[in-house]
Amino acid sequence: MYAVLPVKKRQLFFAKYFSGLLFTVIFVVFILCVPLISSLFTSGVGSLQYPVLIYDGPAESPFGFESTILNEWTDMFHFITLREYFGTVLLLTIVLVVFMFSIYYLLSLFIKSPTVNAAILLIVTFFGMTVLSKAPYNPFTYVDIHRVVNREFAVVNFNEAITVGNGLMVLGMIGVIAIGLCYLRFRRFVVE
Question: What are phi and psi of 54, to 5 degrees?
Fold first, then answer.
């Protein structure tokens, strides 16, 4: 069917991929904005200078060794503004959406049922979040964005490599690999 269209395979693939991705990103950003829009009708948006707590973990030991015990009375923390928090969450959300949509699109090239694809993606994501360890190179660690941004995962797992930067890198790289696999599958099997 696609072979009779007057467009190149590459153009067709990117048009289909990016149109789906664009609508998915618009939907997710809209859902993220619903609480802000609803707050306009209640008590107002508030200040973007509101502090958000960021965990730093256990205080350094005076004896030179690293502590592996969390103590809520002595552990370190700092604050960032709500503006910084929203910016970081929005950036990580968009990269996460690209990652998830790329995996969904790859599944859709093999399985034609959108419901089955969504179910498989949901099961894999749930499995990745609950069964796999919270590691810096596990892309499903970064699905719980709030706990990554406020560094709770890094502190609780005593793993300083679980950061927003690593999350952007891991999700972005796997997303790009998935896009490449999608293109190869699309070019080889869908468009003939």
Answer: -120, 125
